Amino acid sequence: MQQTSDLGALQEQVKSRLGTITARLKTFRERESARERDWQARAERMNQRISELEQSTQSMEASLRQEQQLASTDPLTGIANRLLLEQHMAEACRQVSQAGAEICLLVLDIDHFKNINDSFGHAAGDRALRIVAQQLQARLRADDVLARYGGEEFVALLAATRLDAGLQVANMLRSCIEGIGFRGQQQPVRITLSCGLTALRADDTPDSAFERADHALYRAKRGGRNRCEVL
Questions:
Q1: What was the pLDDT predicted at 134?
Q2: Per the residue annotation, which of 152, 153, 178, 211 is the catalytic one?
C-alpha cells in the first residue's frame, strides 16, 4: 500500500489477492468435502462388512450349536445319546469324589424287545423306544440325565438322590411303563422294563459304576423281569 499511489491499482491488487484466496478456500473446501464423502463411504462399507461378519458369526454359531445338538442326541428318541451320557458320567463321578454328592445310576432295559420287533415289526419297536423315552423323560427332574445307551437300553443319572430314594424313582418309572402300551398291527403291545440301580461311590469310575448297575439289571432279568434290583 505504501508503494502504490494509484488507489484503483490497489483495489485491483486486493481483489486479485482476495480472488486467489477465495479460489484456494473453495478448492480446499471441495477437497475436504470429497475427503469427507470418501470417509463416509468407507465407514458405511466398513459398517456393512461388520454387519455381514456378525450375521455370518451368528449363523456359524447357530450351525455349530445345531451340530453339537445332533452329535449329542439320539436321532430316534430325541434324548441324550451315549456320547453325552459318558460326559455326564465323568462329571458325576467327579462330583461324588470331590464334593461328596449323592448320585444314583439307573440302567433300564425293555423286556423282550426282540419279540416286539419280531411280532409287530421294526416300526413298532421304534415306536416302543420313543414311547419309553418320552415317558421316562417326562417323569425325571430337570437336573437328572436320561440317555439311550444303545438298542433297547436306557440310562438315567439321578442328581442329589440317595439309594433308597433312587429305588423309589426306579419303581415309579417301571410302574409307569408297565401301565402304558400301544397297538401294533391292530394288536395291543405291552411294554415292561427291568431296572438295575446303584449309588455312585467316591472311588468309582464311569466304567465301574456302570458295571455295577448293569449287574443289578441282569439280576432283575434273571429274577423274572419287570422289576428293579440294587447293587
A1: 96
A2: 152
| 3-class state of residue 103 by DSSP | coil
Q: How many CA atoms lie within 13 A of 65 on its CB side?
A: 6
What band does 27 get if pLDDT is binned at 50, 70 and 90? Answer: confident
Q: Would you call 152 a catalytic residue per the annotation?
A: yes
Contact between residue 137 and residue 79 where contact means Cβ atoms under 8 Å apart: yes
Predicted confidence (pLDDT) per residue in 100-142, tens digit: 999 999 999 999 999 999 999 999 999 999 999 999 999 999 9
Would you call 37 exposed, middle or buried from its count of C-beta atoms within 10 A (0-12, 13-18, 19+)? exposed
Angle, helices 206-222 vs 82-99, to 10°: value is: 110
What is 82-230's CATH topology? Alpha-Beta Plaits (3.30.70)
- Sequence ranges of the domains in the chain: 1-71, 82-230
Q: How far apart are CA 192 and CA 110, in angstroms?
A: 6
Give the rounded distance of the alpha carbon of 128 from its chain centre.
25
